[in-house]
Amino acid sequence: MKIPIDEAYLTKQIQALVQIDSINPDLEKGAAGEGAIANYVAQALTEIGITPQIQKVEGDRKNVLGVLKGTGNGKSLLLNAHLDTVGITGMAAPFSGTLQDGKIYGRGAYDMKASIAAMLAVMKGFVESGHQLAGDLWFTTVIDEEYGSKGMEHLVKHLHTDAAILTEPTQLRVCCAHRGFVWIEVKTQGRAAHGSRYNEGIDANMHMGRVLVELEKLSQALVQRTGHPLLGPPSMHAPLIQGGTSQSVYAAFCRVELERRILPGETVDAVVTEVQAVIDKLAAADPQFHADVKALFNRNAYEIAPNAPIVKTVQATAQQVLSTTPELYGEVWWMDSALLGEAGIDTVIIGPSGGGIHADEEWVEVESVVQLAHILAQSAISYCK
Ligand SMILES: [Zn+2]
């Protein structure tokens, strides 16, 4: 059984979705948010003949779901994409949706409105073909992936399926692992004093210098580790630093925020302990040195066994559709798949080809979106048995 994919419909839907501003309002104050695009997607499901289910997450920001109920006792599968995009600063025509030479341009074309269109085309294909799956097939779109993942956190509280395919862009490769991260604050404490009073002041900024020298050594050691077969070694950097209050005052504090990119199996406690060990060593060497370490925020890494049923299913169908063996790989950045995985839903990631994620010019290659739709449809047929 081959589910028909309406390529003209798919192309039109990518363009229409790109033309709707859905910039994440947590990323940019006053931005449009996901209300309008959610309404559009709900309407598109209705037109296909599927009753949309709306999950209000926050204000006018809502997830949109639809389900093709199985005939019974088959495995359930959800397809997922996010509705929001990053901002458009520097883009000449962010909402054009222009189709040229097989590419559609605009913010979100690649990350990831084309994937929403592919999922719609899959649902339409199943409805029109009349093909009945044994298990449920869920269409799910969520808000806020680009900032706080409130949409996915909400979704996994209310829906559980046996497996998921997250359709973030992967150039049609099969992604089965990604890194996580921990944001860590280190704060050195000094003692404020008039800039001339060297015998009273303790300079927290100078003390932070010692911390940074040691943390740089740690970060160099991290990237020497063997790491993960698909993700390489862990890493760390110091993106933010702030200290002192005034030109002629000894700095009473200095704080640095570290970002530690973590691998599957690495915990918040373990990475904080590594940094704490650096601080303890410096404190032992100088009674005037005081610093505190705390974790601010974290997102776990994700991995799924390459021989898990959903991975093997997607790999096999991708091979059929693409007539070549798709690469199995790990992604460097964090995705909502970690939240699906933590909710006990086996998740694999596959999405279209294109370029310009979060950049001045973004595009998706339409042919790859058509191929994605075929992969999703055939995967549902082989998985939802
Ligand atoms: Zn994305």
TrEMBL record:
UniProt KW Cell cycle keyword: no
Pathway assignment: Amino-acid biosynthesis; L-lysine biosynthesis via DAP pathway; LL-2,6-diaminopimelate from (S)-tetrahydrodipicolinate (succinylase route): step 3/3
Catalysed reactions, as listed in the record: N-succinyl-(2S,6S)-2,6-diaminopimelate + H2O = (2S,6S)-2,6-diaminopimelate + succinate
Keyword DNA-binding part of the UniProt annotation: no
InterPro entries for this protein: ArgE/DapE (IPR010182), ArgE/DapE_CS (IPR001261), Bact_exopeptidase_dim_dom (IPR036264), Peptidase_M20 (IPR002933), Peptidase_M20_dimer (IPR011650), Peptidase_M20A (IPR050072)
Cofactor entry: Co(2+); Zn(2+)
Domain Peptidase M20 dimerisation: 177-285
Enzyme Commission number, as recorded: 3.5.1.18
EC class (word): hydrolase
Keywords linked to the UniProt accession: Cobalt, Hydrolase, Metal-binding, Zinc
SUPFAM superfamilies: Bacterial exopeptidase dimerisation domain (SSF55031), Zn-dependent exopeptidases (SSF53187)
GO biological process assignments: lysine biosynthetic process via diaminopimelate
GO molecular function, one term: metal ion binding
One Pfam family in the UniProt entry: Peptidase_M20
Assigned protein family: Belongs to the peptidase M20A family.
Protein name, per record: Probable succinyl-diaminopimelate desuccinylase
